[in-house]
Amino acid sequence: MKFSGLRLYALLYLLFLYAPILLLPVFAFNDGTVIAFPLKGFTLEWFGQMASNDTLGRALVNSLIIALSTAILSTTLGIFAARSATRYHYAGKAGVMGLIMLPLVLPEIIVAVSLLVVLLGMGMTLSIFTVILGHVLIATPYAIAVLNAAFSTLDQSLEEAAYDLGETKWSTFRLIILPLVTPGIISSALMAFTISLDEFIIAFFLAGEQVTLPTYIYSQLRFPKQIPMIMALGTVLVLASVILLTLAEYFRRRGLAKTGAKDTGGFL
Length: 268
Hints:
By secondary structure, the chain is mainly alpha-helical. It has eleven helices and no strands. The chain has a single domain, classed as MetI-like (MetI-like fold). Its main location: membrane.
């Protein structure tokens, strides 16, 4: 009886969590401008409107530029930080890593307002570049979390053997370490890309006159006739996010299998 109760609770929790997402494609293909039951019929009109919307296209290009830049920068910084955290011992390491990971627990709106004040105080113009800075700050801790697991599972004897054979630290890192942690690097980059693509608060405060995909969606919610197109766009974004996270989990597990480490939990 107790087991059945827990199963029912888990089922209701999953239904509450995923029902809104499952309703997105239902209304995205519905031939009606009112988001309500009963459904009127099947249509692809809203996807056609989405594809022909020039403002949406510019927002998509801006978001892709921001997400790709964020993925590259945050993963690069994550490699340095994870390597430092897992390989070297120095005074204040715990405090430094704690400060780097702090954005994970800070409210994003506080981070966004603080960045806005600092960047304007420095005389910077709000643009795509300022959004990238904010997204790198938010995504880097996630990249470090993924890469820490990849670097901590490396066998240090392989590195020491390379030194004994005459390799330098840089050549050892390039030829031995990086190939072993490549799945983790790819997983980290995909995770950072997904976080940046979906992020709204930082972009809302730091984008200035530039429009990104999340801010465009927010601006269109004021117009009831645009809601079906937003449902179609949401369906595409959910599908893209699931694909990216699935790829990230695949490369994470591939990295664990490559190094022989234990799986302590992942994204999926």
